[in-house]
Each structure stands twice: as structure tokens, then as C-alpha cells.
Design goal:
This protein has 388 residues and is of the alpha/beta class. The protein contains 10 helices and 17 strands. Helices cover 23% and strands 19% of the residues.
């Protein structure tokens, strides 16, 4: 597991900035002066003279030279060894360094707010009511630094649409600055009950946009209980219909736990009959962080124990020509009938494997492994797959 935000080892000169710096890392000591103002020099021991003109200079752990004259020279910790040329970071005056964009990552996420109008019992990013509008400001500053060949970005929260005009500005800027980058927005969909918001999002005309929206049951009371918000089910369905009417692509997300697994087949039937317009249905395992960890005894079920319901739901969706995809599950706990539907969905920075996985031919190949948080509880049926 990578620590995307960690404190640097120490500062080797005076820190002169008082607000966070957003910079693109470079190892090029000969970078033109005009480009240095938005860049951070990443010293890797290849140059004899430390270049000037950079707002911050970062050193690999243990590679700090004996003498520095300029301010804002910071030695990274061992936890930050993954940072590389062309990554984008936020550097705080207190020496915290946060990786915003990693060039070698398969996907990068943009956390735009921790505010939310739902309070899901298994939320891995619990809502916080404080004003965090500065996050979008920092992302707007970072966007021009992201490589144009970035394959995909994910906008996440909290609930991104609570940022109002700033949310739409961010989507617009991503489309303009990164025209070849796919954009996935994770939203609970409830605010799109206002048809004008769906129309406004569609009017941006992003070439590769999809919204990932949760639907936890075909029964309103169950969905509303899971998200801890009365009326959320009706609002979500209204939002889905409004988005579909404006041809915004939709992924439905179903997190499977004790409150949702029994009616998976019924939910699949409901989707096939009423929501044929969705692009796919993602059936997801738990990430045991935040509220999921706090509520673990109430919501945890071993994935092996809901395979009958999961298989039936996948069959119903497939026959109904709605694409099922399985996220966040290990291949060995899935029925062989549906293993081909599983994808490696866990972000690389929080992906891990267990000792039981040693010797598995699918490890690092087709199996997506575990969230690092699975160390507190995971299936009791993890066994290495020995034949491909």
C-alpha cells in the first residue's frame, strides 16, 4: 500500500511558502526558466549543482547534499519513494506532501469534497461538514500539469455535485485540457432529480464521461436505510432517468453486504425491466474503512456465503443484456461460473494480497487482490488457484 499523503523527513532550509504549493515534479535540471515557477525539482543525485528558480526542491531519502543555500529544500521520507518525474504533488508548509497525480498509475482520483447528502452505513469516506471548496481550486490549478496521455480520471467525494458551479467548471476544464482522458464521476445521483443539472452536465459534451451511481435495492426502504436518507431511492431513480434522457452514460454500483445481498436477483430483475439504459452494473465488495469498519459486525458477510445470489443476479443481467461486472473480489471466493466477470478494480496504492495468496497462478494477473483494509477481516476461504 502506498501512502499518497505523508510527511517529509525534514526541511534542510527555511520554508518560505505559507499556503500549499501545487507543482509538477521534474528531474530535468535544465528545464527552461519560464517553466520552473510551477515545477518542483526532484533531485535524484544525477546533477552536481542544484538548479535555482524552483519554488521547492525535493530530495530522495538519504540523497540530500551537504550544502544548500536556497529556501524550500525538503528531504522526502522513505514512504514517498514512489514519486517520479512528471507526477503532480501538493506540498504543505508543515512538510506534508500529497500525491495528486501519478503518471504511472492506472487511474487517478480527484477528491473534490468530503461533504455528502447521504450517510451510507458502509461509506469508506465518511462525510465531513466543513467547507473544503479549496480542493476544487487546487485541482483546477493541477489540471494543466497532468499529462495529456492520462488514460482516466475519477472525480469522487463526498458528493461532487454539492460543489455546484465549481463541479461543472471542473468537468468542463478536464474536457478542454485533457480531451483524450476518460472521466468517471462517482455521485449518489440524487441531485440530478433536478433535470436542469442533468441537462447542464450533458451540455458540456465531454467525449468520454460516465457517472457511477449506487442503487442498493429494488425496495425503497432498503436503499434508504443503507444511505441513511429518507426519499433517497426516489431521488436516485429520478436522477437516473434525467441523466439517461440527456444521454449521459451511467454505471450502476451495488455494494454487497448483509443488508443488500439477499435481494441481488430481484434488483437485477428491476434493472433489466426498468433501467435498460445503463451501461453496466458493478457488483462490489466492501472496503473496510470509515463507517464500514465501524459497522463491520452489522454488515460483514463472507463473499462465499452470497455466491448463489451473485451468480443468479449476473445471469439475470446477462440474459437481459445489461453488462454485469464484479469489483473488489478475489477470484478464489467467486463461483467459477462468474470469475470471467471480475476486474482488477482496486487502486494500486491501496491494493494488497494475503499470505494465503502465495503460490496462486492468478495473483497479480487476473485477481484484483484485497483492499489493504482487509487485514482486519476477509474471507475465510482464500486459497491459491493452482491451475489457470
Amino acid at each position: 500500500m502506498l501512502k499518497l499523503r505523508a510527511r517529509a523527513k525534514k526541511a534542510h532550509s527555511k520554508i518560505t511558502f505559507t499556503t500549499p504549493l501545487v507543482v509538477k515534479l521534474t528531474t530535468n535540471a535544465n528545464l527552461p526558466e519560464v517553466l520552473r515557477g510551477k515545477s518542483g525539482f526532484l533531485f535524484e543525485g544525477q546533477c552536481e549543482v542544484i538548479p535555482t528558480g524552483f519554488p521547492v526542491v525535493l530530495y530522495r531519502s538519504g540523497q540530500f547534499p551537504t550544502v544548500t543555500a536556497a529556501p524550500n529544500h525538503i528531504e522526502l521520507s522513505d514512504d514517498q519513494a514512489f514519486l517520479n518525474d512528471r507526477d503532480v504533488v501538493r506540498v504543505f508548509p508543515d512538510l506534508k506532501v500529497s500525491a495528486l497525480y501519478r503518471r504511472n498509475a492506472s487511474v487517478n482520483s480527484l477528491l473534490v469534497t468530503e461533504q455528502c447528502n447521504s450517510y451510507c452505513v458502509m461509506c469508506s469516506q465518511p462525510p465531513k461538514p466543513h467547507d473544503d471548496s479549496h480542493l476544487i481550486t487546487e485541482w483546477l490549478e493541477a489540471l494543466p500539469m497532468i499529462d495529456e496521455d492520462c488514460p482516466e480520471l475519477i472525480i469522487t467525494g463526498g458528493e461532487p455535485t454539492l460543489m455546484g458551479d465549481r463541479f461543472f467548471q471542473l468537468v468542463t476544464e478536464i474536457g478542454a485540457l485533457l480531451p483524450r482522458t476518460a472521466l468517471h464521476v462517482l455521485s449518489n445521483g440524487r441531485n440530478f432529480k433536478d433535470e436542469s443539472l442533468a441537462r447542464r452536465l450533458a451540455a458540456i459534451k465531454h467525449r468520454d464521461l460516465m457517472l457511477g451511481i449506487p442503487l442498493y435495492s429494488d425496495v425503497a426502504a432498503i436503499h434508504d436505510f443503507v444511505v441513511q436518507a429518507d426519499g433517497a431511492y426516489d431521488e436516485t431513480l429520478e436522477g437516473l432517468v434525467n441523466l439517461a434522457s440527456h444521454r449521459v452514460r451511467i454505471e450502476l454500483r451495488v455494494v454487497i453486504h448483509k443488508d443488500t445481498y439477499k435481494r441481488l436477483p430481484k434488483l437485477a430483475e428491476f434493472i433489466v425491466r426498468n433501467l435498460q439504459f445503463v451501461d453496466q452494473v458493478s457488483l462490489m465488495g466492501l472496503e473496510l474503512m470509515g463507517f464500514a469498519r465501524a459497522n463491520i459486525d452489522a454488515i460483514w458477510i463472507d463473499p462465499v456465503d452470497y455466491q448463489d445470489e451473485l451468480v443468479e443476479a449476473c445471469d439475470i443481467l446477462g440474459v437481459g443484456r445489461v453488462r454485469p461486472v464484479i469489483f473488489n473480489h478475489q477470484l478464489c471466493v467467486l463461483s467459477p461460473r462468474i470469475r470471467h466477470l471480475a476486474v482488477k478494480s482496486i487502486s494500486d496504492w491501496k491494493n494488497d494480497y494475503m499470505p494465503e495468496c502465495e503460490g496462486c497462478v492468478e495473483k497479480h494477473r487476473a485477481c484484483g487482490g484485497f483492499f489493504a483494509s482487509a487485514s482486519i477481516r476477509h474471507s475465510q476461504h482464500i486459497v491459491p488457484i493452482t491451475e489457470a
